[in-house]
Design goal:
- By secondary structure, the protein is α/β, with parallel strands linked by helices.
- The chain contains six helices and eight strands; from the N terminus they run E-E-E-H-E-H-H-E-H-E-E-H-E-H.
- It has an eight-stranded mixed β-sheet with strand order 1-2-4-3-5-6-7-8, sandwiched between helices.
- Helix 5 links the parallel strand 7 and strand 8.
- The longest helix has 17 residues.
- It starts with a strand and ends in a 6-residue tail after the last helix.
- The model has no long low-confidence stretch (mean pLDDT 91).
Length: 215
């Protein structure tokens, strides 16, 4: 358990750094979720099994969570979420356990948009991005400024989000970009074997790009 001081707020996180890790993945959870998301927890365990470090954190304070449960507004406040991710990224670059690690983002739903915006703000330290059922369209003009290799993973039955990801893929200017469709999966990848595919795809992408120094 760690506490990240970002601006005027303090956010809770779970940091796990396996011995010999060369990269760390910062999770940006989706709409109405938290660091306790069972899906993100599952993916994080899979990534750690390959030797990657992970940081799962809340993007909202407890008070903000209460407001968001009522209004559902903050979960779509991409500039706010991205600002928190940038703050967490800066924290990782100074923290003794993680300052030597190349950083990756794993974003889900609206968290994927925040991850893309944050990556555009910190191009020199973010080495890779993976989006699970994300809304990259909400990143707007930041898509064209992303430099990190980006993998978009979408369920084959998540048709509306799939269309939005296809359009976002065209707006990404980074050379290393890919859209992978998990056949038969819906938005939350609850179908048997679907989340396992997501974890395997993410692990392969991060191991490929976080094990080498940034340019």
């Amino acid at each position: 358990m760690v506490t990240l001081s970002i601006g005027e707020v303090e956010l809770a996180g779970e940091l796990d750094v396996p011995q010999g890790a060369q990269g760390i993945v910062l999770f940006a959870h989706g709409s109405g979720s938290s660091r306790f998301s069972p899906r993100n927890q599952y993916v994080a365990r899979a990534l750690r099994a390959t030797g990657l470090a992970t940081l799962l954190m809340d993007l909202l304070t407890r008070e903000e969570d209460v407001v968001d449960e009522r209004t559902r507004a903050l979960r779509f406040d991409i500039p706010l979420l991205a600002k928190r991710l940038v703050g967490a990224t800066d924290w990782l670059t100074h923290h003794a356990e993680t300052r030597h690690l190349v950083i990756g983002y794993f974003g889900a739903s609206t968290g994927a948009a925040a991850a893309l915006v944050a990556a555009a703000e910190r191009p020199r330290v973010v080495g890779a991005i993976v989006s699970r059922g994300g809304r990259p369209d909400l990143a707007g003009g930041a898509l064209a400024r992303v430099r990190a290799p980006t993998l978009l993973i979408v369920g084959g039955r998540d048709e509306t989000v799939l269309d939005l990801n296809r359009a976002a893929l065209e707006k990404l200017r980074v050379t290393e970009k890919e859209l992978v469709i998990v056949p038969g999966a819906t938005h939350l990848f609850q179908e048997p074997g679907a989340l396992e595919q997501v974890a395997a795809l993410a692990a392969e992408w991060f191991r490929r790009f976080l094990n080498k120094p940034l340019e």
